[in-house]
Design brief:
- This protein is α+β, with helices and mostly antiparallel strands.
- Strands 4, 5, 6 and 7 form a four-stranded antiparallel β-sheet that branches. It has a three-stranded mixed β-sheet with strand order 1-2-3.
- The longest helix is centred in the middle third of the chain and has 10 residues.
- The radius of gyration is 16 Å and the shape is elongated.
- The protein starts with a helix and ends in a 15-residue tail after the last strand.
């Protein structure tokens, strides 16, 4: 949700994933908000968390140098909630569309609303 809506609502073209991997104690505020969690990092075991798949929806189907389409032409909020963000390759021969329908009230993320 946050990758699409950062651009749709704030015209931000990059998102920083903080932390990439965490080892917080269970119950702390940002527990499992990272891309991966390692409760006992010395063991080599880690868990892949939901945010990594959100990043993958955009990252696996675009490359550096791709452009967002303009707002109103493949980028915007959906009437019944969610958002759409469309990307086009530099030579305009490939298109990627990412649609998300998760509302802020149903998100596991701890973030304020974007303006």
């Amino acid at each position: 949700r946050i990758i699409n809506q950062n651009y749709v609502k704030g015209r931000m073209t990059s998102t920083i994933a903080w932390n990439l991997i965490d080892s917080y104690l269970e119950g702390l505020p940002w527990d499992r908000d990272s891309l991966m969690t390692a409760r006992e990092p010395w063991s080599g075991h880690y868990t892949v968390n939901d945010p990594i798949w959100i990043s993958a929806h955009t990252g696996q189907f675009t490359e550096a140098g791709w452009y967002y389409l303009r707002h109103g032409y493949g980028v915007g909020m959906l009437d019944n909630g969610g958002s759409i963000a469309s990307f086009i390759s530099p030579n305009s021969d490939e298109l990627t569309v990412v649609i998300e329908t998760m509302s802020h009230n149903h998100s596991k993320c701890i973030r304020p609303e974007l303006p």
